[in-house]
């Protein structure tokens, strides 16, 4: 699910010169001695875990781009997610950083705050920027600067066990649209069936989803230690204590196990969850339906977006930005979505019938119900270099309360002190 990827985000700064190569002898071209041959440029392009599954797509995309830009050669390299950080650090140290890099939102923002990335607000036209969903584009926009072009994304879906929902006297055709309604459904499911209502996310981002205070506007001070947050946490504790939501579901496999064994009726997750249930419990898969995820008081749905960034030190900024725009344009995102089962970050792409029509299968419905939420999508991020540490500190505090029954006020006090220390370092 999306929370897993968010939890795995890494921190690093990109503070080195680009290692792209260029050639061109500078001599007059044959038959045109008054002009110099156009400089040949190699743009090094890094992606994360996309080879070999999508080789055909990227090979064609690169061939098309090079045909349109004969002076540019694209050198595509792909690395496993867990290896990207070390590889990037090694190349940085050796002065050979790539030109265009595929990064998640949190890492892109952290690198951007160090001045390591090109400000795309300065490079793109108003029309080019308007091509992307505003909430997703602005997720890497801070202080008037935009650090990344959003690429492919994903949004959570609420999966229901139709049998359990109906057994509880609820209508799956009118599913919960808000977190408050989700809680009400969960209580009724518990009361009528004995099953847990839904699987709960114990992460820092839940505070922002409910429009609760988190950090000061200048990101220099924790602001989440308030009576409002304390009340929200206590409400969730009551749901846990009443058996509306299970406690031991931090592990993704455990969440799959609960849903597959029909111990829980609802789960907020993403498309890969479908295959997990289909494999583990084909009979439960037949009972599953997908509906849009409920929203909290902030009215947003947190997406999980992969982006393209351009290192500020690149010697081929124009070509790198142009290629990044090409990769993320509406037509190319549509083709990628069709083969990768991802959602696009571009407004025009999402208008295609591919995202509004489906074959009636669970997979098809999950795609369409998530696509309709793109206009409410934002990526979760904290605009500081120490974002990962802040996120972990608050998440750990919430989990300590929810799982271990720790005193709410005391734990929030301790988390506030820890976050302020992190922000002050």
Explain what you see.
Residues 1-16 form the signal peptide. Keywords: Signal. InterPro entries: Bact_solute-bd_prot1, SBP. With 425 residues, the protein is of the alpha/beta class. Helices cover 43% and strands 16% of the residues. The protein folds into two domains: 39-154 and 304-379, 3-Layer(aba) Sandwich (D-Maltodextrin-Binding Protein, domain 2), CATH 3.40.190.10; 159-301 and 381-424, D-Maltodextrin-Binding Protein, domain 2 (3-Layer(aba) Sandwich). It is built from 19 helices and 16 strands. Strands 1, 4, 5, 6, 9 and 15 form a six-stranded mixed sheet that branches. A hairpin with a 2-residue loop joins strand 7 (141-142) and strand 8. Helix 11 (252-260) packs across helix 12 (272-280) and helix 18 (387-404) runs antiparallel to helix 19. The longest helix is centred in the C-terminal third of the chain and has 18 residues, at 387-404. The protein is globular and about 75 Å long. The model is unreliable at 1-36 (pLDDT under 50).
